[in-house]
Amino acid sequence: MLFVDPAGDDSGPGTQERPFATLERARAAAEAGTVVSLRAGVHRLTEPLRLSAADSGVVYQAHGYGTAEHESVVISGGRPVTGWRRDDDGVHRAEVPGLATRQLYVSGRRAARAAITLDHRLTRTETGYVTDDPAPASWQGEVEFVYRGAYPWSEARCPVARISGDDRSATVTMAQPAFGWASRLYHSIISWDGPGAGESNGADAPTSAENSPAFLTEGSFALAGGVLHYLPLPGEDLGEVVAPVLETLLHAVDVHDVSFLGITFADATWLRPSAPEGFLHYHGNGYYDGGLLQTVTFAEGQGQVTVPGDPATMPGNVIFESASRVTLEDCRFTRMGGVALEFRGEGADNVVRDSVVDDVSGGGVVIGSGALRHRIENTHVHHIGRDYHGSPAILLSGTRDTVLSHNQVNDVPHAGIVVYEGRGAQVLDNLVHDTMQVLADGGGIYVSGSQGLSRDTGALIRGNVVRDTITPYNFGLYTDYGAAWVTVEGNVVHRADAPVVLNVSPPLEHVTFAGNFWDADPGQAPEGVTLSGNTTLPQQAFDDDPGVAAIVAGAGIRPTPSTARGR
């Protein structure tokens, strides 16, 4: 066994009496079969921890894991910020030359990025905006415009290049290529009568602006010109302020039979949205990064939207690539700036269990194309998408035989669990609530594309409780965009805009809804959809129905020693 202690010494032997100081030193010394025991404290990384096939067969665990002496261990990519001075305006400032971050944590609390609502009269031009309001000319710093609802399910971010003006007007010049891309991407035409009809462009109307000291309110920060500006909450102590600086905490490639037990991963950022390319979100964790744009027509030709031909995806702060038989148990992923945890490449049999993913700027957990027989079980994913509101809590894309069971997902700005095209996904006995809190056109559980070649190889959505799906135009359990070979049985879906949807474009094929309980009649089944033995109950009857009670009792996290500790 090897030992690592933040107060240790890398020149020592790595024993309990003389532990190493860094994870990198322990990695270099470990061999297959080694247990690396991490002592209590914050293990700060100055560069990502990288594992390769040669690092396989090693267990990294908190000291005392599995016992009452389990120590609290944090692997952090953050940098403490000190040297604050309070100016006469009450703002605290710290010189941070070279610091690049998009998040700040004060005593463990996520500080808001300083922002204002854009209710100015902005007119879009080829290079940005003009306004007869002179106020923008006074905004200093690296300002960023946010476009909430660029599409109803999308939220974009574009940096401002410069602002000029006088006492009568202001001209906002946007960064390129982000602004030009956004003007081409967020273009739609709706030809039916009613709300939203006509031609529109999501770049016409930015909804808010961020990251100027002029926008500071209590508890918020701005980073401008190498200076952090922070306006504390009343009575707040600035003794512990951390700025995430690493974009990757751990990147493991081609490893196998590796375990991380009882460890917290924390304090990472993701800087791409600050680049001239911005962050042009499309759907899920996907965004436009240049290249081909396509026009998608729907609703029998009455609507069309522009979409990326080959979207890029938000990266993980903890990444396992082409890895197999990795176990993450009783771990926490918190204060992350991108996707908290990502499995990419052709790995197999990786497991996340009894863990927590929370306070994440982007997505919670992503399992990507090529993954085989991965499992996420008994894990709580909540308060994700804090900065990037289109991000789902759990996303499967191109996986085979993935199982999501007995998890809890809540407090999510868009969809909770997303299953894109793949084969054999099983979404079983999960509790999903308080999703769709910010954006529209999504669901607590969202499934799209072909899910197999037959009922036996298709997706199974069973035993889940989906409730409190909040913003308008959502579906508690949403089968969308040509979903095929999906069985939806024995679920409870209520308190959504609508429990399910049956008519979508492209149409559903080989989709069965059987034995579900919901609080609104979904209507007649079109060709390709089978309804069997479903029960529509009034809302007030849900608590008393024995069929509902049995499903509710079996859904969500099951008690374990780690969940009893509040992990």
TrEMBL record:
It comes from Nonomuraea recticatena. This is Right-handed parallel beta-helix repeat-containing protein. Signal peptide: none annotated. It comes from the Bacteria. Residues 318-452 form the Right handed beta helix domain. Pfam families: Beta_helix (PF13229). SMART domains: PbH1. SUPFAM superfamilies: Pectin lyase-like (SSF51126). Gene3D superfamilies: Single-stranded right-handed beta-helix, Pectin lyase-like (2.160.20.10).
